[in-house]
Structure formats: structure tokens, C-alpha cells
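Notes from hallway chat w/ T.B., transcribed later so I don't forget. T.B. wanted the structure written out for a chain they're using in a teaching module, and asked if we could keep both sequence and C-alpha cells in one place. Agreed to drop them here.
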Amino acid sequence: MRKRGEHGVLILAAAFLLMFGLISADYFSIACRQSYADMAAEREVLTVRASDSQGTVYDRNMKPLCNTVERYEAVAVPRALNFEKTADYAVDREAFRTAFEKGVPFVFECRNDTPESDALTVFPVPERYTDGQPAQHIIGYISEGKGVAGIEYAYDTILRGNGGENSVGYSVDGFGRVIIGDGKKVTRSSVGASGVVTTIDREIQMICEECGREMNKGAIVVSDVSTGDILAMVSFPQYTAGSIAEALDDPDCPLIDRCLYSYGVGSIFKLVTACEAIEEGKGDIIYDCKGSINVNGQNFNCHRLDGHGAQNMSRAITNSCNTYFISLSQQLDTARFRKKAQELGFGRENDLCAGITGSTGVLPRAEELSVPAELANFSFGQGRLTATPLQINRFTCAIAGGGEMPELRLIRGLTADGKEISGEKSPQKVRVMEMRTARLLRQMMTAAVRGNSESNAVSGIVDCGAKTSTAQTGRYDAEGEELCHAWITGFFPAEAPEYAVTVLAEDGGYGNKAAAPVFRNIAERITKRVGTA
């Protein structure tokens, strides 16, 4: 009985062991299958990214203002490559060696003729900016992958949205090693052709940057008279995106876009005084300039201390006679005069896009102009009055364009392919003076260039109309000389104006010496370009 019982226990134990073995084997099989499933699910876990591409900022003719030069980057799998053969394609051989010896996939800058293979994938990557980058103030710059100024800031999500990635995804084994020959997933950027289309003409922009290079500080604006499209907008001194730290420490503040900042205006404003006088029926007044005029016990001098003698309005603009316009302002309706200045854009900002907005400047209040001395200063552009180069350029468009003043425009629209533009709006204009008034002002500005005046520094091969300014600042240099802003604004061709050009030389001195030659060079070079286009 005992042996029979022991035998049963042994049979039961054997059965239990067999069952346990079967269960263990089943669990092991399930675990293995799960392990294989996990490995399969994680086969494409290694992704190596080259530099991302970004959208492009274009000029009005769809010519890129940035992304104009391509460099090349390659993603390499070192254990499947021959060092010597591959290193020949590296731009920096020593940097390539250092990365290669680590044995893991890496990115290196390569030549454009680098051959691709399973272990080597090449990406063309546009250089965002180049040496001599045009329109840097307009384009702006990037910090930590985000736009922080200019169009880079205003259209950050458009220029750096989805689709910019350049990368390679590899299958890996259980040890994380790339499996060559098992395919690779290559993602190439699709955003390079998309971007923002501006109104800038790249060639005119570069002409202005070259012509104004001698200005230490200043601004140039060129616009299309009929549409208000900004063809060039340049600020000096210029900067590069690679030298932001140095620019921040520069006392001349190159990061400031001076086209957007307001300055004392000076004699250019005499055109506004003349405009109001003509429309009040007082454009034929004759005044005898004796070199000074007394306003409520305060003397105001003309720049010619012995006087200009008898002046009509045209001669007064040609000679830039201060006393003529002071006397004229005393005969105007002050409220209408101020309103006319406001209608011509003074005291109003120019919003070009997010982050690029021209200052309102300072338009004296009505109660301020009720003080005779303030009105006298206002009549020839001194006192509290300030304006931006954009504002001056815009009202020049009104004179040149028959009395219709356009909204200045910097952005035409967006593009998805670098060919077609979406979201473009029609030019917007408003009538701010009578056609007759505009015609008379154009004739006076043309006569000022042709006549014996400070504006004749503009005379050259291009027939144009212009007015210069020398705006006092009340600041003095180390030698005791007053610092003055030099201005000129005008249009060309004279008979059928197409372009409005405004030049400011901050602290530059006299308008006829510092600003007028720049204007002349720009007009001549644009005319030559159009003639040979």
C-alpha cells in the first residue's frame, strides 16, 4: 500500500512538473514574441536632423532677398562608410574626422557634388543671409530660431512653420546600431519656395544702399508715385545678422531703422505751407525779404542775412526764403493750415506690417500754433514739428501724383511656390490737394532744381523736382558747430513722375551738400537701369 501511494505521488509530481514546464515555455514564447514585437515597433527610432530650411522673403519681382545661396549638409553613418573617400567631400576635414571617430550617425557640411548612398544623405540648405545682405533692416533677424525684428518677426509662423525639416530616419537593431540596407526615411523641406512677397525692388534697394554708403547715419526711401509701393527703404549705419552683439554696443545704433524714426523737418515743410496758401487763394503773394522778420517782438532771420528781396512763392521755394513763409503763415487760417498738414500725413503713423511702423512724429497742437512764434517756426518746419522719412516721402507722392496721396505699402502678399502671390490688395489713395495745387507745387520744385539755388546740387542728367532742408537740432559738436539734419525730397522724371525719393542725413549738415548728391546719384542710376532694362 505504501509503495502504491508513493508511486501515485511521483506520478502527480511528474504531472505537475510537466504542466509547469509547459506553462513556463508558453510564457517564454509570449515574452519573446512581445520582445520581437517591441523591437519591430521601435525599428525606426533613430532620426538625424540636418539644418531646417525656412521660407523666403522676396522682392516685388519674386527675386529672393534672402536664401539666395545654398550650402550642403550630409547625414553620415560612419560604420558603413570609408573615411578617406568620404572625408574628401567634407568642407572641414578635421571636424569630419572628429565626428566620424565617435562611430554614431552625424551631420557635416559637404561639397555640392557629394554622392549619396544608403549611408550618406545630402541636403541643400539655403543660407539665410549672405555677405552684403540687402534690406537687412526690412528682413530683420532671428534669435534662437525665432524672428525678433523686421519681416522675420512679423511673419515668423509663415517663414518657420511646418515643413522645414531635413532629416533621415534609420532602422536600428537591438543594440541601437543602424541597419544599412533596410531602407531609410528621408524628409526633405517643403518650405523653401514659400514665403513673403514685398514691394521692394532688389536692384533699386541695392542702388540706394550703395549711393548712401558715405552717410554715417541716415535713411533713404524710394516709392512708386502711383501706387505708394516702397521700392527701397534703407537705414544707415547698416548691420549684419551675425554681428548683433556688436551692433547693440555701437553708439550709432545700427539696429534702429531710421526710416521709421521722426526728425526735425526744416524747409521741406514750406511745401505744406505753400499748399495751404494756394488752396486758400493766396499763392500769388509777393513779399520783400530783408533778411529778418519781427513776430510779436521776436526776430526770425532768413538764412540769407542781407535778404532775398522781392519774392513770389516760386522764387521763395527756390531760394528757401524763411521770412516769406513766416509772413505767409500769418495770413492763413491756422486751423485749416494744421488740418492740411494732418491730411498730408503729419502726426499719423505709417503701419507697414507688424513690428514695422513709422512713428507718428510731432504735429503741434492747435493751441500751440495760436502762439505767433510757434506758428512762425511751424511755417518753415522748425519748432516742435517732427516727421519720419516715410511721412515726407508719402506727401511727396501726393505732390507728384496730382494731389492723390497713396498708402505706403511694403508687403504685397504671400506665396506658396515662389511664383504666385496670394492676398494682394489694390493700392489705396486719398485726395489731399487739388490737381491744380499739385501741378503748381511740382512746377516750383522743378524750378528749384533748375534755378540758382541750394537745390541745384541735384542737377544732372535726370530732370526732376526736389526741395532740400537743413533742420536745426539745438545740439552742438565739440567745435561748437550746431548739428543739423540734411534732407531732400523729390520726384522724377519731372514731367511724368514715377519715383518719389527722400533722403535724410542725420546730423549731416546742409541738405544741398549732404543729401542732394545722394538723391542725384540714385535718380541717375535708376534712370540708367530702366533705360537698359
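Follow-up for T.B.: The first strand starts at residue 46 and ends at 49. Might be a good example for the class.
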